[in-house]
């Protein structure tokens, strides 16, 4: 549900559809799969926030895209705000 794709990772048509649905490139909470996989988005986000606050993360291996290594806990908490 968190991805780090770049524009060149996604072909034109899916990129347009994702953009219309609130998805897209970059390090982000991806709203498109969240529509399918999450019944209660607020509860999921709260659980992930709590886990990160209890045990900060050093590297994020997102669902799609490159690993994130810089300021990961703060950046991820920002995505979930």
By secondary-structure content and strand pairing, the structural class works out as mainly alpha
Average per-residue pLDDT, rounded, comes to: 88
Q: What is the chain-wise order of helices and strands? A: EHEHHH
| Tally of DSSP β-strands | 2
Oligomer category: single chain
The percentage of residues in β strands lies in 5-15%
Helix proportion:
40-55%
Count of separate DSSP helical elements: 4
Unreliable sequence segments? none
Name the overall outline: flat
- CA-CA gap between termini: 14 Å
Q: How would you write the strand order of the largest sheet?
A: 1-2
| Biggest beta-sheet profile | 2 strands, antiparallel
- Return Rg in Å: 13 Å
Quick description:
The chain has 81 residues and is mainly alpha-helical.
What does this structure look like?
This protein has 81 residues and is mainly alpha-helical. The protein has helices spanning 12-20, 31-37, 41-54, 72-79, and strands spanning 2-5, 26-29. Strands 1-2 form a two-stranded antiparallel ribbon. The radius of gyration is 13 Å and the shape is flat. The two termini are 14 Å apart. 11% of the residues are buried. The mean pLDDT is 88.
């Amino acid at each position: 549900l968190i991805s780090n794709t770049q524009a060149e990772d996604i072909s034109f048509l899916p990129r347009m559809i994702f953009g219309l649905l609130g998805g897209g490139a970059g390090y982000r909470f991806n709203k498109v799969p969240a529509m399918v996989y999450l019944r209660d988005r607020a509860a999921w986000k709260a659980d992930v926030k709590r886990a990160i606050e209890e045990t900060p993360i050093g590297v994020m291996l997102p669902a799609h895209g490159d690993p994130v290594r810089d300021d990961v806990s703060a950046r991820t908490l920002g995505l979930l705000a």
